[in-house]
TrEMBL record:
Its EC number is 2.5.1.19. GO terms for cellular component: cytoplasm. It is found in: Cytoplasm. PROSITE patterns: EPSP_SYNTHASE_1 (PS00104), EPSP_SYNTHASE_2 (PS00885). GO terms for molecular function: 3-phosphoshikimate 1-carboxyvinyltransferase activity. This is 3-phosphoshikimate 1-carboxyvinyltransferase. The lineage of its organism: Bacteria, Pseudomonadati, Pseudomonadota, Gammaproteobacteria, Methylococcales. The active site is at D320 (proton acceptor). It comes from the Bacteria. InterPro entries: Enolpyruvate_Tfrase_dom, Enolpyruvate_Tfrase_sf, EPSP_synthase, EPSP_synthase_CS, RNA3'P_cycl/enolpyr_Trfase_a/b.
Amino acid sequence: MSQSITFQVQPGGSLRGEIRVPGDKSMSHRSIMLGSIAEGVTHVRGFLNAEDAMSTLEAFRAMGVEIEGPVNGEVTIHGVGKHGLKAPTKPLYLGNSGTSMRLLSGLLAGQSFDCTLTGDKSLESRPMKRVTVPLAQMGAVIETQENGTAPLHIKGQAGKLKGMHYDMPIASAQVKSCLLLAGMYAQGETSVTEPAPTRDHTERMLNGFGYPVVREGSAAKIDSNGKLTATEIDVPSDISSAAFFLVGASIAADSDVTLKHVGINPTRTGVIDILRLMGANIEVLNQREVGGEPVADLRVRSAPLKGIDIPEHLVPLAIDEFPVLFVAAACAEGQTVLTGAEELRVKESDRIQVMADGLQILGVNAQPTKDGMVVQGGGNIGGGEVDSHGDHRIAMSFSIAGLRASAPITIKDCANVNTSFPEFRQLATQLGLNLSTL
Ligand code: S3P
């Protein structure tokens, strides 16, 4: 883990200008995973050079894949084919990255070698039974800690996995992707049904590599008969990183920001829908399709926000954006209620508790509930010292809160901003946020 970093944001200001935020984290992970097991050389542009995606990249290097870069977002992957990965000589350390661990557990369950997946304190406390239980039903052999957490010891079951149908009890793209990746190595068909739509980058990218995944209603189906052929991947900017500025420019007076080349896959745009329901002024410009994914420029200008009851169907479509949406709620007129979001309690931190604690320190009436939060907006955001609990999205959300605060906000434990958005401070400052590190 990098050394401890404290952010301090001076109150007020506005955001103005045009920026391109870094590449999409979910797609960056998948580009390495699929490029590595493809046949031929895959070129990736727009790759996210941040700790989480690098954890995936290093894991595949440790399994014998030659990967060049990233240099200016460009990565070249010399694919080894579906059966070409080699046993790593030591445990694969995946840092803070839940996506790496959950997707890799599926991909590695059907290999011809054993391996161990480890991570930092946060990752080793996150629930892994959601993947190890269905994988075991497919014949995987994975040893976890007593409470189902990592380290995960995976005993390769080459040729022994069996396809199955799985009805996911939670709406999780990580679980869905894990099982689809395992399904590429299983006998017969593997199908996964989701209770609500979740991000579909795995399915889209598999198709981009020429590997068939069939979508039927709420089910995605795969079998082991396909093959991945190397391709070109253009990773758009991450809407989850853009979200900080969608909220920031909405709540700060006199703001006008354009975010270039943002991925607007409909399974990711809940943040735009929720902000628009709150009254935000967001224009989706220049829509186009890049490598099988919809992309646009987003222009956002200051607008008076109002509190809303957040429709539950939008929750999985905005799952990573709630920390900053709580800040929007604190600045809105009236009450905002979030329900149906208990998943937030098992992210990089307990995002319900940690955000409610921080908002309360800043004088906001934010009441955590079992599965969400009730935020009374309209009051003032004060200054004070809050703790991000090592969670990148909490650190960036409280930085954005500074735009409407009446005194400086100090945010502790911010080194993990590097897991998803190392350029945050530089880009936020460029737009007008008065943010420094202590
Ligand atoms: C991700 C899926 C989401 C999200 C995470 C990335 C992915 O997790 O929170 O940041 O890349 O598949 P869940 O699928 O567990 O909700």
